[in-house]
Amino acid sequence: MIIIMTPKATDEQINAVTDKLKQFGLDNHVSRGVERTVIGAPGDENKVDKEALQAIAGVERVIRVTQPYKIVARTYHDSDTVIDINGVKLGGNQIQVIAGPCSVETLPQMEASAAAVAAAGCRMLRGGAFKPRTSPYSFQGVGVEGLEMMKQVAKPHNMPIVTELMDVRQLDAFMENKVDVIQIGTRNMQNFDLLKEVGRTHIPVILKRGMSATIKEWLMSAEYIAAGGNHNIIFCERGVRTFETYYRNVLDVTAIPVLKRETHLPVIVDPSHAGGKAWMVPALSRAAVAAGADGLLVEMHPTPCEAWCDADQAISPEELNKLMGELKITAEAIGRTI
Ligand code: PEP
Ligand code: MN
What we know:
binds manganese (II) ion, 2 domains, Alpha-Beta Plaits, TIM Barrel, eight-stranded parallel barrel, binds phosphoenolpyruvate, elongated
């Protein structure tokens, strides 16, 4: 473990750190440089409460040498990773909005969706062909046919497609249909066998946060994918479950700067599954962009009230258009483009 002190750290503050390290059973080697003091602390980092050290006055940064996650960590790769999705760059200065219906229904519905998404200025199309539903009696998605439909309607607009993979047995169909981005849903964030399988491909993966997952668990799930050799991972915050009932989930805006600090990989936000209501989508989207998200995953349906799944939270093509205009202003305010 390495503790970097602020340039003005006093001897008492340095002693407070070494005392704390001793309490945790770690050694300490104090190195007083011209600018600042750095304390090296060899020993078992698992015994250390990093936050307790971070809280000591005069401490600038505490770095774990042996983080449980390695490849996805910011320490592995200092600059932001930009993922090239068939020419669409995610993770750079330009914010990407991925939009489309919750589920793929029919060809006309998907044609209208693709046209509306492209017309609004978005560069990627979403849609679920395989749907994880709470009830086995609810619509389960149109399956492989949905992948074909998505590719077909996205092609004239030159848009990559994003769709959810629920089971390793569907992976071949995803490869055959050249799915551009695989989405791993909240319910599968810790489906480790599934993560290992997508780790063997090089297809970009949107890894949604488990609805009750900690950030560390989420990072560890990403590490599963990365460990297999696939480093094209995009984190997607989609709200966590709490006691509140006025909205579907609580959008954890705090997770955005935390992830941007912990990982070099892109971070996007799904405001639709967070709020669960269409009217909340603009406010949550603006908050996400303002907090540093690299993109959004938004549910839009050509006729929201007729959607077969998540009708309440789908915005209309007109609302998407308006949202893109609002987000342009938010993006410009923080020096980004959309
Ligand atoms: C979805 O994006 O369609 C979806 C099912 O999301 P989540 O896994 O976040 O519930
Ligand atoms: Mn949905």
